[in-house]
Specification:
By secondary structure, this protein is of the alpha/beta class. It has 18 helices and 27 strands.
Length: 605
């Protein structure tokens, strides 16, 4: 952040909006108003977008409360070539999982952004969307308004797309569908100028296997092979994220306030005659904030269920364990936890292209924004449908459907949550049996393949360990607890081997180092995968959007069941994880949430 800009936003003079004196956008407790139209808990990927968009209406005032700071343009955040380095720093909640008993007893780090912009400042800058079937599946679970065609305008509203230069597009065969992109949104999407052609033989090998390159994954065809942009500002060649795209414009508006370095402790509510609750204020250390209209919780897949549970909204057995009065019995809060576990298969190429990396990479980036530091990672993807990966897909899905819904869920799971999982079984099996939903993602890196299971059948949990919001909750991915996940991964490994057996890949003289050719039986491959499995940082689904009788926490308008003025809008409301890197999906949820809020705005007047 430039010093002159920081000075400006810290000391903007008061203005008058709706007859209320609004002080500096970046406020202290003393400058806070008596009440706001909307209070947003969490200034991460979704929360800062919601707050900023609401403030575009001059007759609305909004307060965003964020647990972390506004970063100062830190190099580890803004430089594409340094992706991943911000994890484990002060900008990360530093969560850790429980021991993964079905995945070789490992504890796994669970990164979560603790700064304005949240995970959009930590992620790998992948800016793709799921296939249409990924979101149509949400609608299949009882969520009208969430089919791909219905949410596409919100994807486009978020995006500011820049096509690649003609020469680059022709050399790499980068294709795109202009009708699927937005050109005036808050977040830049573009292709890095620095690319290597290391994946060319991989693309050719897959094409020889009958796998086509799609025109554009953004148009609902995020299957087979396709190019996708990064969240990259093509002019500055820096990360485009929640701070730059949403916070900066909002900070110029007098009806936008933000409290940073402020951890919300609890939602204070009253019980109404009909048994519902109304949130009266948002409590944090040293103060509280009141919303005249609504409170929106956008604290992420870990933070949002934690806050609801501490506030008395959640499964009653858990709340009673901590002597928390049950305000709303919602067993689904903290259930349904999903992620994209990923693994790596390593090869040595005896006849492969030489690895080259400019020794002056830093100088190239500092002087003219070129070279390896100008790129964050892969932009070419293969999300393959299950029937493409294996002829056994139908047998595996039938075996999955034959499971009792509660067979592999945590012991004592509430019947409504079990019913929701049963509904998800049917929806997932239907779509995975088609050739329109990606089952596994394969990313080629020269020295091997990173593969990620896109629709895991296991379900994890997030549960409070204390009534103190500063105590990490119990985070359990429950990786590989459903054996059907291992069936998919075994077939995915076998498919990788078939790809390397093509003449095109064989010409590179590959040697499989890990797991190694001797690891051949299904059991041996599965054991290898259990030792490799880790997070792709796509935590979601812990406050699922589906009917209450199916263990849902929010309805299709993101309203928390049993409340009158509380919504959740972030990755936690996703009912079924989509086959994609989830950044742009979370932005889409935020953009749609704003429209849902504004639809109801008039009823409060």
């Amino acid at each position: 952040m430039h010093t002159t800009f920081a000075t400006t936003y810290l000391f903007l003079s008061a203005a008058l909006v709706n007859g209320l004196a609004i002080g500096p956008r970046y406020i202290t407790e003393r400058q806070k108003l008596d009440s706001y139209d909307y209070v947003v808990v969490g200034g991460g990927t979704a929360g800062i977008a919601i707050g900023a968009r609401l403030s575009e209406r001059p007759n609305i005032n909004v307060l965003v409360i964020e647990a972390g700071p506004v970063d100062a343009g830190d190099d580890i955040i803004t430089t594409p070539g340094k992706v991943g380095q911000v994890m484990g720093t002060k900008f990360d909640w530093l969560f850790k999982s429980e021991v993964q008993t079905a995945a070789n007893g490992r504890v796994i780090n669970v990164p979560a952004g603790k700064l304005v912009g949240g995970a959009s400042a930590l992620n790998g800058m992948c800016f793709d969307r799921g296939a249409a079937a990924d979101y149509d599946a949400w609608a299949d679970l009882g969520n009208p308004g969430w089919t791909f065609d219905e949410i596409l305008p919100y994807f486009k509203r978020n995006e500011k797309f820049t096509p690649p230069p003609k020469e680059q597009a022709e050399f790499y065969n980068i294709t795109w569908d202009p009708s699927a992109h937005g050109f005036d949104g808050a977040i830049h999407s573009s292709y890095p100028s620095y690319m290597t052609d290391v994946a060319r033989p991989w693309r050719q090998a897959l094409n020889s296997m009958g796998i086509p390159q799609e025109l554009d994954g953004h148009n609902g065809r995020a299957i087979n092979m396709f190019w996708a942009p990064n969240s990259l500002d093509p002019v500055n060649v820096t990360r485009s994220y929640g701070k730059t795209g949403y916070y900066f414009p909002a900070s110029k508006r007098s009806n936008f306030h933000i409290l940073t370095d402020t951890v919300v402790q609890k939602l204070i509510h009253k019980t109404n005659v009909d048994g519902s609750i109304t949130v009266e204020s948002v409590q944090y250390k040293g103060g509280s904030a009141t919303a005249k209209r609504e409170v929106i919780v956008s604290a992420g897949a870990i933070g949002s269920p934690r806050l609801l549970q501490i506030s008395g909204i959640g499964p009653s057995p858990l709340l009673k364990k901590f002597n928390i009065p049950v305000a709303v019995e919602l067993p689904g809060v903290g259930s349904n936890y999903q992620d994209h576990p990923f693994e790596s298969v390593r090869y040595t190429l005896r006849n492969g292209p030489p690895a080259t990396f400019p020794v002056d990479a830093e100088r190239l980036y500092r002087t003219n924004k070129t070279g390896p530091w100008s790129a964050s990672g892969p932009t070419f993807y293969a999300f393959l449908p299950f029937p493409t990966i294996t002829s056994k897909y139908r047998a595996i899905l039938d075996k999955y459907l034959a499971q009792k819904p509660d067979a592999y869920l945590p012991a004592g799971t509430d019947p409504t949550v079990v019913a929701g999982y049963a509904a998800q079984q049917k929806v997932l099996a239907k779509h995975l049996a088609s050739d329109l939903m990606g089952a596994t993602e394969f990313i080629y890196g020269g020295s091997g393949i990173t593969l990620s299971h896109q629709h895991e059948f296991s379900r994890g949990t997030v549960q409070i360990a204390s009534t103190d919001v500063n105590v990490q909750p119990i985070i359990d991915f429950r990786y590989a607890t459903n054996p059907a996940d291992l069936d998919v991964l075994v077939e995915s490994i076998r498919w990788i081997r078939s790809a390397y057996a093509t003449p095109i890949m064989q010409a590179l003289q590959p040697i499989e180092n890990s797991p190694g050719a001797s690891v051949e039986t299904d059991e041996a491959i599965a054991n290898f995968m259990k030792g490799q499995m880790t997070t792709m940082y796509h935590s979601c689904c812990t406050n699922p959007m589906q009917p209450r009788e199916l263990g849902g926490v929010v309805d299709s308008k993101l309203r928390v069941f049993g409340t009158t003025n509380l919504r959740v809008a972030d990755a936690s409301v996703i009912p079924l994880i989509p086959g994609t890197h989830i950044q742009s999906t979370v932005y889409m949820i935020a953009e749609k949430a704003v429209d849902l809020l504004l639809e109801d705005f008039a009823k409060f007047d």
